[in-house]
TrEMBL record, chain A:
<feature type="domain" description="UPF0033">
    <location>
        <begin position="6"/>
        <end position="30"/>
    </location>
</feature>
<dbReference type="InterPro" id="IPR036868">
    <property type="entry name" value="TusA-like_sf"/>
</dbReference>
<comment type="similarity">
    <text>Belongs to the sulfur carrier protein TusA family.</text>
</comment>
<protein>
    <submittedName>
        <fullName>Preprotein translocase subunit TatC</fullName>
    </submittedName>
</protein>
<dbReference type="InterPro" id="IPR001455">
    <property type="entry name" value="TusA-like"/>
</dbReference>
<dbReference type="Pfam" id="PF01206">
    <property type="entry name" value="TusA"/>
</dbReference>
UniProtKB/TrEMBL annotation, chain B:
<dbReference type="InterPro" id="IPR027396">
    <property type="entry name" value="DsrEFH-like"/>
</dbReference>
<keyword id="KW-0472">Membrane</keyword>
<protein>
    <submittedName>
        <fullName>NADH dehydrogenase</fullName>
    </submittedName>
</protein>
<keyword id="KW-0812">Transmembrane</keyword>
<dbReference type="Pfam" id="PF13686">
    <property type="entry name" value="DrsE_2"/>
</dbReference>
<dbReference type="InterPro" id="IPR032836">
    <property type="entry name" value="DsrE2-like"/>
</dbReference>
<keyword id="KW-1133">Transmembrane helix</keyword>
<feature type="transmembrane region" description="Helical">
    <location>
        <begin position="22"/>
        <end position="44"/>
    </location>
</feature>
Amino acid sequence: MADQELDARGLNCPLPILRAKKALNGMTSGKTLRIVATDPGSVKDFQAFAKQTGNQLLESGETGGEYTFILKKG
Amino acid sequence: MASKKMAIIASKGTLDWAYPPFILASTAAALGYEVQIFFTFYGLQLLKKDVGFLKVSPLGNPGMPMKMPFGPKWFRDINWNIPNAVQAVIPGFESFATVLMKKTIKDKGIASIPELRQISLEAEVKMIACQMTVDLFGMDRSEFIDGIDYAGAATFLEFAGQSDICLFT
């Protein structure tokens, strides 16, 4: 279980990233954030986000048109 | 590690062209970039207190699909190819196209321009209005949002010269 959840379903670029960033701002280092999105572009975008921000992408998956990501705050 | 820098010139004042500078600025700020946007010529419209008047124009814009954001799927899929000469004589054609575009933006979960601008401001994106264009267009500082600077080319170039990414939009 992640420490915090973010529902980004129905949101388009760049809102899933911006909402995730906002959620991470309120979290302490080492905590995890689980994001659910429907934007297919978010798969590549969360990889790029993790790579550039030092927050670790622990999981990335897809089931039935929904994309799930787990980020660990760096 | 020093943060990366991105410098953008925003020179267009339509609803569609308001997106590139604000999407890139807000996202870059979320990635830890230091961002400055220099608003010049028609781009100054993006700094007005209320940006609800921004319009999109299909006139002379053959790349712009004209699709209806309502009705059955077969109807939505039609790309209405309306000749320039017809568009030009219909009063309010731009306003009509803008209403359709705004509805599509909302239906597809795309952020509004006021929202992206607000996120950018909260993320400390520095916004600079071109003082020369403010004078040229006879605008007044009271028309613009607070928290912006007024300066010229030398100010932009100082930051742009150290930037990792530099864009003209």
